[in-house]
Design brief:
CATH architecture of the largest domain: 2-Layer Sandwich
Strand content: 25-35%
Helix content: 25-40%
CATH topology of the largest domain: D-Amino Acid Oxidase, Chain A, domain 2
Mean pLDDT: 95
Number of strands: 20
Distance between the termini: 18 Å
Length: 401
């Protein structure tokens, strides 16, 4: 059995960034990355909207706020260095009715506190940038950008392999045990030994943590986000990125418009419970995944406290008219015939047992291993900073022999 110093589980953008930064920090280390799919970034990374987030939404002082701010800068620099298409186009958050102005002001103040470059905008000023938007006021976030995180992930992969790291695709982890000072990581085909395991398994991160004997204290509950795309002849309705004022209890909710790096314009997502952890279609179903969700007290507490919001999201999922109506709050010209379905994504959202969302990145340390058990958006934006942080945590507690 070949032995490695570090084994990273998960070939999404966080796992790839971590393996890359391990190689940079420890050039002589033997580094292994295991990914169950046949290639990199097949799930959350390859199915997101490509936004380089600013950090305006997140609680001041949180990892999300700090990592998004620094991550936006480092991600743009990384894209420039490696020739990855990107644009710092900014985004506009709009209040569409008077009752939202207080929330918009709170968001503006949070942006100031987090150090985001933000500006208040009148409705007239918003229309100078986005002529088709109807609103009463807006906030512009200048540092928001767009890129292709699939291309970023592929670049990380190339750099890992260039630096001598070993990447195994089609390697689903089914067990983790300890033997002396090594961890034995089993897959259906073979087993690997490593001194340190870094779990970046995304939608399955809680299960991998439990395999290794760690208790994250939270459970992954999958939420599917469904998108539509503007037909090419209607793309002119959106120049940059247009967001509604978010619900402060669910800042990841709220359909918005995103001009993608390839010039297409996506609208969405809604957020509905997925009946499979990788359930990208309404009909996708996995008995184990559904059972674990329904048997978890935290899910029922979340559902009970937010029944109205949940029903609204379900309605948007099954009614295109309801989805379009949400978009028309910002751009009244949008019609159902302007939209065609495009690929969906699944958010790996961790829930505490009391039904509250884990609202920050959750990294659990156990027996020298690290488990990234909550890293939804803005994890792609912050992937460089997360990778560096995980390496720092490792160096604080372990030394290569």
């Amino acid at each position: 059995m070949k032995r490695y110093d570090y084994a990273v589980i998960g070939g999404g953008i966080v796992g790839l960034s971590t393996a890359y930064h391990l190689g940079k920090s420890f050039p002589k280390a033997r580094i292994l990355l295991l990914e169950k799919e046949g290639g990199p970034a097949m799930h959350q990374t390859g199915r997101n909207s490509g936004v380089i987030h600013s950090g305006i939404y997140y609680k001041p002082g949180s990892f999300k706020a700090k990592f998004a701010m620094s991550g936006a800068t480092s991600m743009v620099a990384f894209c420039k260095e490696h020739g990855i298409p990107h644009a710092v186009c900014g985004k506009i958050i709009v209040a569409t009715k008077q009752s939202e102005l207080v929330l918009l002001e709170n968001l503006y103040q949070r942006g100031i506190e987090n150090g985001c470059p933000v500006e208040k905008m009148s409705a007239e000023r918003v229309r100078e940038i986005e002529p088709h938007v109807q609103c009463v006021a807006g906030v512009r976030v200048l540092s928001t950008g767009i890129t292709s995180y699939l291309e970023v992930a592929k670049t990380y992969l190339e750099l890992i392999q260039r630096d001598g790291g070993v990447v195994k695709f089609g390697a689903r982890v089914i067990d983790i045990t300890s033997h002396r000072d090594f961890r034995i990581i089993s897959t259906p085909e073979k087993a690997f030994a490593a001194k340190v395991v870094i779990n970046c398994a995304g939608l399955h991160s809680d299960r991998v943590a439990q395999m290794a004997g760690a208790d994250p204290g939270a459970r992954i509950v999958p939420f599917r986000g469904e998108y539509f795309e503007l037909v090419p002849e209607r793309r002119h309705l959106v120049k940059t990125l247009i967001y509604p004022v978010p619900n402060p209890n669910f800042p990841f909710l709220g359909v918005h418009f995103t001009r993608m790096i390839d010039g297409s314009v996506h609208a969405g997502p809604n957020a509905v419970l997925a009946l499979k952890r990788e359930g990208y279609a309404k009909t996708d179903f996995n008995l184990r995944d559904v059972y674990e969700t329904l048997a978890y007290k935290g899910f029922w507490k979340l559902a009970g406290k937010n029944l109205e919001e949940g029903l609204r999201e379900i309605r948007r999922s099954f009614s295109k008219a309801a989805f379009v109506q949400s978009l028309q709050r910002m751009i009244p010209e949008i019609a159902a015939e302007d939209l065609v379905p495009c690929k969906s994504g699944v958010r790996a959202q961790a829930l505490w047992e009391d039904g509250s969302l884990v609202d920050d990145f959750l990294i659990v340390k156990q027996n020298g291993d690290l488990h990234v058990c909550n890293a939804p958006s803005p994890a792609a934006t912050a992937s460089i900073e997360i990778g560096k942080s995980l390496v720092r945590k490792i160096t604080q507690s372990t030394q290569l022999s």
